[in-house]
Structures are given as structure tokens and as C-alpha cells.
Task: structure prediction
Amino acid sequence: MEKVVKHYAITLFDIIDSDSSKSKYHINIINLYFFLQKNYFFEKIISSNFIKKNKKIIIIKNIFNNIFIYNFLKILIINDRIFLLKKILSEYKKIYNIKKKNIIKCILITAVPINKKIQKMIARKIINDKKKEFIIVNNINKDIIGGFLFINKYREWDFSIKRCLNEINKKI
Result:
């Protein structure tokens, strides 16, 4: 299902990104995301297997006057993917942040909490891109003893004292 979510999110992004006149649709997508956050029952209703597809389409047509949102939701309903809507929108936001806002999400694991300024300094030294903005989550793990682990997407940089001690142990 993760591939399906990514496929829909990338397609949605590509449609919006392909034409500058469609940039207003990004705001509509974000509004839809927040609408779902606030309206738990709406999500349950349109994801329900007890309501027929044509009824769901009528419901969304009455709620959403935006033709772009309506058509997007209609495609999801017809393809039996409407239950993935929240995940698709969440993935879309991630793609948008990476491609448009130049935001990189990272995890910094340390033995003790460190301040935001040092976190950003570490990220800039490792990633080496001054144009990027970083969202850094500082996780605490006393097992690493000291130093830090820096994780970005699927790459990991281990500058922990625990790793150094393990390497020394292997040499002995």
C-alpha cells in the first residue's frame, strides 16, 4: 500500500507542479488535509464499505465545490483507494516540502539534549547545503554514551562514542 500512496502523492504533486496556474490547488490540498484532521466522521463515512460509491461521490460533490478536489476524491472512490486519502495527503505534504520548500527532515540522536543552534550547525556540516532548511528531531538515547547519530532519509552518520568503543573492542 505504501507504493500506492507514494504513487498518488507524486502524481498529485506533478499535476500541481506542471502548471504555475495550478499552484492554487496546493492550498486546496492542504485545506483538505486539515479538513480531514478536524472531521473524523467524514473520513469514516467516505472510507466505509457500507456506503456505495455513487453515494460517496454525491456526498463529496455536496461538500466540495472545488472541481479539482472533487475529481481527485472521485478517482480515489472509483479506484477503491479513498481509505488511503489521509496517507496520500500526508505524503504529498512531505514531497511538497522537499521539492518546493527545500526542507530536509533529519533525526539527531544524542546522549543528552542539545540546543537548536548546535543541531542546525551539525546538519549544515553533514548535508553541506546552505539553501536547505532543516527540521531536526533530537532523540535522546543514553546508550550511545556521547557524540551523536545523524539520520537523513536512508543515510546514517554515526559519530557516537559507543561506535568508537566497539571498533576498539574489535581490534583487541
Q: What stands out?
A: The chain has two domains: 2-99, 103-171.
